[in-house]
Design a protein that fits this description.
555 residues, alpha/beta, six-stranded parallel sheet, 23 helices, globular
Amino acid sequence: MNSVQSLKKQSQINGAQGIVSVMEREEVDKVFCVPGESYLPVMDAIYDSSTIELVSNRHEGGAAFMAEGYAKASGKVGVVMATRGVGGANLTIGVHTAYQDSTPMIVLLGQVHSKFRGREGFQEVDLDQFFKPISKWTYELQDGDRAIEIMQRAFRVAQSGRPGPVVISLPEDVLKEVCDAEPGPPFTKPRPTPSQSEVSKLENLLAESKQPVVIAGGGIKSSQAEEALVAFAEKFHLPVITAFRRHDVFPHNHPLFCGHLGLGTNPNIIDTVKNADTVLAVGTRLSEVTTQDYSILSTSHKLVHIDISDEVLGKVYAPQLGIQADAKEALETCYQLTIQPTWKQWASERREAYEKASTLQLDEHSPINSFVIDQLAKQLPSDTIYTNDAGNFAGWLHTYFPFNESNTYVGPTSGAMGYGVPAAIGAKFAHPKRHVVSLSGDGGFMMTLQEIETAARNNLATIHLVFNNHMYGTIRMHQEMHYPEKVIGTNLGSVNFVQIAEGLGAKGILVERAEEFQRALSQAMDTTTPTVIEIMTDPEQISIKKTINDLRNQS
């Protein structure tokens, strides 16, 4: 029996204790926050809990990213807390990321005293309305007696259907009110299964197909369907492409893996979808990036869309067959199909196209970024977890790194800068015995580098790579494409990240030449503290294939 539950047997509990008792029943073991006086009763109840650790962060944005990264890596619900309007505003970026990435997250925000609501009290914001557009559900607790009821509903909503963030506003006086309700049983995630008629229709569509392809998304991760996807693809010899930043849902060394639909995807990989006649989209919302600005699917495709949320089916493309189902249940049920694949040559051709587009070839003229990816693949264990920020530097990781094991990638489909560092720390909290590496540009790294101290304080040996080209590189690329040579706002000054890292309690290493990275990575792997490796990159090499001069000459 947990501490707060034990306390319930002895006497009545307050709303804050009721909230924590639900977290205990839901097996929450980490809560991330920047502390605030408006929700001190919740912090006090966590203090009395024997199973929940409170992680104090340096910024609410970092706390939200850390909770989101922890949720992705652990498969649990991420929980983050902040105070009133100011703290809530600061963590909004993490809530938006959880919303777009379909990550289950509970956001608890302290609120002003109920008697002061509507008077523009100190730091007052109508939090449930503020977060409504980027959350699955928002609610302001108005009665301490309902704290357990509302918290249980929050966990249910965050994990049901398409997962996402739930925001609960907590007036400080309500947290102290008596809570009489007894917590119910832990949440069990619904797993709907395709009907037999839907399976029969899928069988008919595939039987008529000559060039099918599977697009696998985050629903595979949410339902832990990676093995089911491999088995399904192997039985029917189906080529598989992963949706944007869902690299690890299918092993890249598998002969049926045919690429990743992301930013700057090689045209040969895009052609796999364009030239397919049947597209089986599983657990993906077919986002703007995955569909290359909604351009690669057309009415000539027969689209079979499987997703756990009915709101996703048909939202962008009207499917020939839409199946509302859990990804794992769907794949295991559809394994019974009796069709004989006639497209093995098609699958082999698309694999060859992927290999041609993604093979990393090094010579003395290769950018240092290429050597970094090569060494990451060679030196680190295959179960290492990678996170990345937004930026062109990530193109090397997305194009060339072989993700051959499940649950090894944590990336923001929202494209948020500042994500890499705190997400890596969250992943390390989830898997303390595994190596965790973040990749950031100098722009994004500066946004959340303060969380390096959080890692150091908690003895987490994360590895953080900073690709320093002294600019906001992605924006500079678009600037040069549309307004060549008119450089404004994208240049950045010189920052000594090695010294900053050491000041935050981490080890700092400077890498200026490709041959230095191998030694730096070896040192980072052997240390017991966080390590920041600052990698000086050529500003001219603006992307994998293009230099700034190339862009200017194309204009």
